[in-house]
Amino acid sequence: MRKYIIKRILISIAILFVVSFLIYLLMRCLPTSYVENLARQKSMQPNSKSYEEWMQQLSAAYGMDKGIFSGFFTWLGNALHFNFGDSWHYTVPVTQKFADTIWVSVYMGAVSMFFEIIIAIPLGIYAATHQYQKSDYIISVVAIAGMSLPTFFFASLLKLVFCVKLGWFDLFGLTGRNYEQLSSMGQIMDKAQHLFLPIVVLVVISIGSLMRYTRTNMLEVLGQDYIRTARAKGLSEKKVIYHHAFRNTLIPLVTIIGGSLPGLFSGALITETLFGINGIGYTSYNAMVNGDIPFSMFYLVFIAILTLAGNLISDILYAVVDPRVRVS
After folding, report:
1. Domain match, 30 and 103 both
2. Residues 293, 122: Cα–Cα separation, whole Å
3. Ramachandran assignment for 47, one of left (phi > 0), alpha (psi -120 to 50 degrees), beta (any other)
4. Computed over its alpha carbons, how large is the radius of gyration of the chain?
5. 64 and 125, same domain (yes or no)
6. Contact 202, 112 (CB under 8 A)
7. What confidence tens digit (pLDDT) does each residue in 261-291 have?
8. Do 76 and 104 fall into the same domain?
9. How far is it, in rounded angstroms, from Cα 125 to Cα 117?
10. Of 152, 181, 220, 263, which has the maximum CB count within 10 A?
11. Could you tell me which residues come within 8 angstroms of residue 261 by beta carbon, excluding any fewer than 6 positions away?
């Protein structure tokens, strides 16, 4: 296992190097950038230099006057020393802006994933063990409805009912008006109240696919010969389902759960925007729209690292959930 992990890490480093270069290449080929916008604004001021002169000056100041390869290796050398520069759009260090916005999205993603797992997997198993019964049809309809609901529509519907009509929650923001006057516990509860509806949106729109996936895999496992053998031996239905069938159903589910790791840190752009939450999804979107190459590079490479780590964790967990899997 140790050799396998070391081998996978080395392969991941090589993949990350290639991915980082491709991301940098794409960032340099953007049709617009913060430097161009800033040069255009400055050139329009009275008695100002021309647009070309400002572009030359600003490109040198921001390191954009270098070639693709030299610029990438300059960025890579700084990145290895954990120096990712300043955000062009937010005018603060990239890591500082990232730290200020990431944890809200992580909290939302972790809580929504927790409820997604504890709701979707049991319902998927229940639907599979009651195939073609009324409960199976109800669960399937709920799953398909959750998968089909557009995020903006469902979020707007919840805001209309619970914020406008009932007045239970604020329309926007992460904190209330009297947040500073609250105690420590009161501030925590205030943030939790403002995050309640966004988390509900994330859970409802995500449980459908996991529920259907669990049901499909459970039905496939229940049709295997060893399940019929276990029942023929007189084992209880509960033991057959949760000890024999469910363990093998976990194998494909591990892939989904491991692949969800980047989702914890990527944020939920539409949900964060609709509820006025300054999370990493909304922050990174604004950075990319404004051509903020330093922040966009850091964020995209960070997501690439999480994706590679999620795949490695999934492969390792295969051996945990399935004793038949052995790593040579």
Report:
1. no
2. 43
3. left
4. 25
5. no
6. yes
7. 676 666 677 888 888 888 888 888 888 887 7
8. no
9. 12
10. 263
11. 306, 307, 309, 310, 313
Helices (H), the chain: 2-28, 34-43, 51-61, 68-80, 94-129, 134-148, 151-158, 184-222, 225-232, 237-239, 246-259, 261-266, 269-274, 280-289, 293-321
Tell whether 113 and 214 lie within a shared domain.
yes
Domain that holds residue 60: 2-80
SS3 call for 178? coil
In-domain check, residue 187: no
Q: Read off the amino acid at residue 314.
A: S
Q: Which residue(s) pair with 93 in the sheet?
A: 86
Residue after which a domain boundary falls, among 80, 112, 141? 80
- Enter the pTM of the model: 0.76
Q: How many CB atoms lie within 10 A of CB 212?
A: 20
The sign of the dihedral angle between the CA atoms of 108, 114, 115, 117 is positive
List, in order, residues 6 or more apart from 131 with CB less than 8 Å away.
219
User: Do 223 and 300 reside in the same domain of the chain?
Assistant: yes
Question: How sure is the predictor about 321, in pLDDT bands with cuts at 50, 70 and 90?
Answer: low
CA 311 to chain centre: 14
Write the single-letter amino acid at 298: F
Please indicate, yes or no, whether residues 126 and 47 belong to a single structural domain of this protein: no
The predicted-structure confidence for 43-80, as pLDDT tens digits, reads as follows: 887 877 888 888 887 777 666 777 788 888 888 888 88
Q: Are 221 and 287 within one domain? A: yes
The partner residues of 62 in beta bridges, in order of sequence, read none
Mean per-residue pLDDT, 157-182: 85
Angstrom distance (rounded) from CA 191 to CA 62: 38
- Single-letter code of the amino acid located at 273: T
What CATH number does residue 141 fall under? 1.10.3720.10
